[in-house]
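wait is this the right file?? whatever heres the structure
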């Protein structure tokens, strides 16, 4: 059985920061820069797949849950794109490494 542990919000934020190269402060800032918002959307999508609610996923990146809904749907439509898939794999690998201490 492959158990998936619900990561801490900081783990998700740190994973996106690590993979993207943007600081956690940049990822949670109020700005709407297109390049950073794409990484936020990836993070929200990854958070949702890891068991966080829309409200929790949005809060990780300082966004309202309605923004999280839009982000989740947008990435869901793009998940087959090679670049998006590789970025999500990298984010998930980072999260898995951080969670590997949970009883393995």
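ok assuming it is, sequence goes like this
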């Amino acid at each position: 059985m492959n158990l998936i542990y619900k990561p801490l919000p900081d783990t998700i934020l740190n994973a996106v920061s690590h993979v993207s190269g943007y600081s956690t402060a940049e990822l949670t800032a109020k700005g709407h820069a297109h390049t950073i918002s794409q990484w936020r959307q990836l993070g929200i999508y990854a958070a949702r797949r890891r068991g966080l609610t829309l409200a929790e996923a949005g809060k990780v990146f300082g966004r309202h849950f309605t923004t999280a809904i839009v982000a989740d749907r947008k990435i869901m439509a793009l998940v087959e794109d090679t670049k998006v898939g590789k970025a999500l794999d990298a984010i998930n690998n980072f999260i898995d490494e951080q969670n590997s201490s949970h009883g393995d």
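The CA atoms of residues 29 and 81 lie 27 Å apart. so i think its the right one actually
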